[in-house]
Amino acid sequence: MNASPSQPHPAEWTETQGLLPSVERDLPAGRHQFHKEQMMVQIREDLRNTAVTPVRRNPFLRRAVLLPALACALAGAVVGGLALNGGDANTSLATGPALTTRIGAADARGADRLLDDISLAAADTSEPTVRDDQFLYIASKVASTYERTVDDKSTLVSQKLHSRQVWESPDGKDGWLVEPGNTDEGGITLAGPNPVSSAYDRLTRLPTDPEALLRKIYKESDAVRDPEVPRDQAAFVAIGDLLVESYPPADLTVALYKAAADIPGVVAVDDAVDAVGRHGVAVARLDEQSGQRTEWIFDKKTYAFLGERTVQVEPNETFKKGTVIFTVAITQRAVVNEMKEVPGRAG
Q1: Where are the beta strands (DSSP E) in 255-291?
Q2: Which residues of the chain are modeled with pLDDT < 50?
Q3: What residue spans carry the region label Disordered (predicted)?
């Protein structure tokens, strides 16, 4: 699916002026399993503590329920039982207060029809030919919300919306990441001996029969998911991860949408806004344990994939209703000839 969105508009949240000091934070047991920003803290620690090159991971997906051979890999962080207690190196992006949004109405009966329309649009999308010597380029805007503790006082803060650019070879063994505030100015290498599981070459080998694909998703998801994450939610999240920072072939994209229609609890949402403020319809599912709803956002007319967000729809002691836990807008996908080449600009 090749998203080439129109000019972005301001996102629907507030931003503050001051910067908060770096502190240590500790979340209640299980809470960190589904919060992407806390995963980013661990990734930044990894990058600081690695002398030469970072551990081969996809630093974009801060999930605890990913498939080892399907979704973009951060499963190692979960399997290893990482304790996400550490300094917040990203003070330049922590602007607070918490991002908030209006919660769209959910319609369980409308999900099948919406996914049918999205599948038809995806099947009608032209698919580029990708050579082994080329790179997949994905640009996005991201932000997230997390709990920060200063002198025993906890406050919700949010990252400033910021850009992210990723280049990845089709085999998933070479790549580059530029994300101001999370990487050096010039970016960091993603090269490593083991390909990420979202690599284009691997995606081309996944089953395109929706039933077979969903069985594979459930099987591999069950092997790595945290027990506190419901099984159906883990499968839904795994599919979503393949829609965001990867480049699935058109036939696989169609199969992913059709597979999602068979996951219990999937709903249609009448209005959702992505990280750059584009309104669309959404396919979503509520995590009954955390009270958070993961939403895949699509253009209301073309059904092009715009992005994803996770919203707190059932308040708890940490997050009030309407808090945006994580949001991403895909602004460009392309196939380029060189690492670090930006489409429309050489080099």
Answers
A1: 266-273, 279-287
A2: 1-91, 347
A3: 1-21
